[in-house]
Design brief:
With about 170 residues, this protein is α/β, with parallel strands linked by helices. The chain is built from 6 helices and 7 strands. Helices cover about 35% and strands about 20% of the residues. The chain has a 5-stranded mixed β-sheet. A two-stranded antiparallel sheet has the order 6-7. The mean pLDDT is about 95.
Length: about 170
């Protein structure tokens, strides 16, 4: 089970869907843990900005020009999909629009890699949520929680940026 942080500041995690018709998981951790499923760009941006998090961890490729980065090759061993695939291009374009409107520091994360490194990964998301000890409505909220937790680790020196020029934050080996 992961230590559930209680903070005097807020951090946010976003498991962004490629399309607004699909669910996006949002997690905000401060004194309490809030988990939400949202859809529209505006409601995602408004919710995150209203929370005023110190940092936002987003599960989506963050880049201006869509290409396979050094970090994508590194994360392939954890199951990362190349950002050049059509569905990933859509996700990358949406991420670009959203992060430009978020008023906090932003880091890119990959929750599957984080879960595998922290040795909590399970193909069955319900079992993984149970293992962590959190109640979520869907896999997207779970991934948002793991993204948020990765940001928490990063702020506390227990995660690192990997890759070349464009980096992704993952936990240091537990």
């Amino acid at each position: 089970m992961l230590n559930k942080p209680k903070l005097n500041y807020k951090i946010a995690g976003i498991d962004l869907a490629g399309l607004p018709t699909n669910p996006t998981g949002i997690c905000i951790i401060g004194e309490e843990i809030f988990l939400l499923t949202l859809y529209e760009d505006e409601e995602i941006i408004k919710t995150v900005n209203k929370a005023s998090p110190r940092i936002v961890a987003i599960d989506a490729p963050l880049m201006k020009k869509i290409m396979v980065r050094k970090v994508d090759k590194i994360l392939k061993k954890y199951g990362a999909i190349p950002p050049t695939l059509p569905s990933m291009r859509t996700l990358t374009e949406r991420a670009k629009r959203i992060v430009n409107s978020i008023e906090s520091e932003i880091i890119e994360v990959f929750p599957t890699a984080s879960a595998k490194i922290m040795e909590i990964y399970d193909k069955n998301w319900q079992k993984m949520a149970e293992k962590i000890g959190i109640s979520v409505k869907n896999k997207h909220e779970l991934d948002a929680y793991i993204a948020c937790y990765t940001a928490y680790l990063y702020l506390n020196g227990m995660a690192e940026k990997i890759g070349g020029k464009r980096k992704v934050v993952i936990p240091k080996v537990f």
